[in-house]
Amino acid sequence: MKKVNKKIFIPAGNEPGSHTCMAIWRLPRGSKTPLRVTGFLIDTWVMFKRCLIISMRNPETLLTATLIPFCLILLFGTVFGSISDVGDYNYIDFIVPGIIFQSIAQASQYSAMNVAADMTKGIIDRFRCMSISKSAVLIGHTGAGVIRGIISNIIIVATAPILGFRPQAGPGGWLLVIVLLLLINITFTLIAVLCGTISKSVEGATGLLFPLFILPFVSSGFAPVDTMPGSVGWFASIQPMTPMIDSLRALTLDLPLGNSLWFSFAWCIVLSIVCFAMAMWTFNRK
Fold first, then answer.
1. Are 16 and 34 a contacting pair, CB within 8 Å?
2. Lowest-confidence range among 10-24, 89-103, 107-121, 175-189?
3. By C-alpha distance, which of 81, 69, 85 is closest to 164?
4. Which of 107, 256, 277 lies closest to 168, judged by CA?
5. How far is the C-alpha of 217 from the C-alpha of 56, rounded, in Å?
6. In angstroms, what is the C-alpha Rg of the chain?
7. Phi/psi at 84 (nearest 5 deg)?
8. CB–CB of 125/11 below 8 Å?
9. CA nearest 47: which of 148, 131, 128, 132?
């Protein structure tokens, strides 16, 4: 088996001439498949670390992704909770899944911004000159975005009891919550990565993600679907966020799941595959 024989330095920042670099050992041309797979994994790991370093340089992004949803819990729970009709539910318990979606959307916004910055500031052109897997760049951004989203979710779930959230899930229910949140974070981050590759500017990337902030409000996140007027209720019942939010609510409150969990998994898998394929196609064309 051939040994790695080439060392390349990857800039950790978006700025041209960034002095913070990470080293990656590359494989020689003509390597066998196991070595190529190893090279892809190394590329992906290095790109993932690079994106995490960028995130650590901007801790306010995680603070914003957590603070805004927390303020929404406070706002909806105290101002609108007394006038909202959600049946036998405590309104805080009812809206926490929708708030979690807001936190994921906030966290994914920075994935779109980082990808757009890479695409527009020349760093991607530098990567193209190196023997680096193209998909590793996008997978690295996706992995870092998922980490940001999961951290934001954990903070929301940990602090929501202060405002009255009382989950009833057992160990099995929490395990399913973790799996579902992981899939949702991957899906949202891939949508953000796609927006970042499409956009011609960092500002435009955030604008393309606007539907992710609106759709939770036009779903079962903050009001039962059957209380919405005709066309709005019909749209809320068929859009992908509704079964995901219903699944999270049922799992955290130990309620019957029905088919919502399977619909959630199906939506996440389909959207993830489509968004990643489109992001790679766009990335390769630019």
1. no
2. 10-24
3. 81
4. 256
5. 31
6. 21
7. -95, 135
8. no
9. 132
Q: Could you read off the pLDDT of 78-107 as tens digits, one per residue? A: 766 555 666 667 788 888 898 899 888 888
Q: Report the mean per-residue pLDDT for the chain.
A: 80
Under DSSP, is residue 115 helix (H, G, I), strand (E, B) or coil? helix
CB 35 within 8 A of CB 1: yes
pTM over 0.90: no
3-class DSSP assignment, residue 259: coil
- Tokens representing 76 are 């909806």
Q: How far apart are CA 279 and CA 9, in angstroms?
A: 25
> With left for phi above 0 and alpha for psi between -120 and 50, is residue 76 left, alpha or beta?
alpha
46: Cβ–Cβ under 8 A, 6 or more apart, which residues? Answer: 10, 22, 24, 136, 140
CB-based burial label for 204 (10 Å; 0-12, 13-18, 19+): middle
Q: What is the pLDDT of residues 129-172, one digit of tens each?
A: 777 777 888 899 999 999 988 988 888 888 888 888 888 888 88
Query: What dihedral do alpha carbons 207, 209, 214, 220 form, nearest 10°?
Result: 180
d(CA 262, CA 257): 9
pLDDT at 108: 87
Q: Are 120 and 31 in contact (CB under 8 A)?
A: no
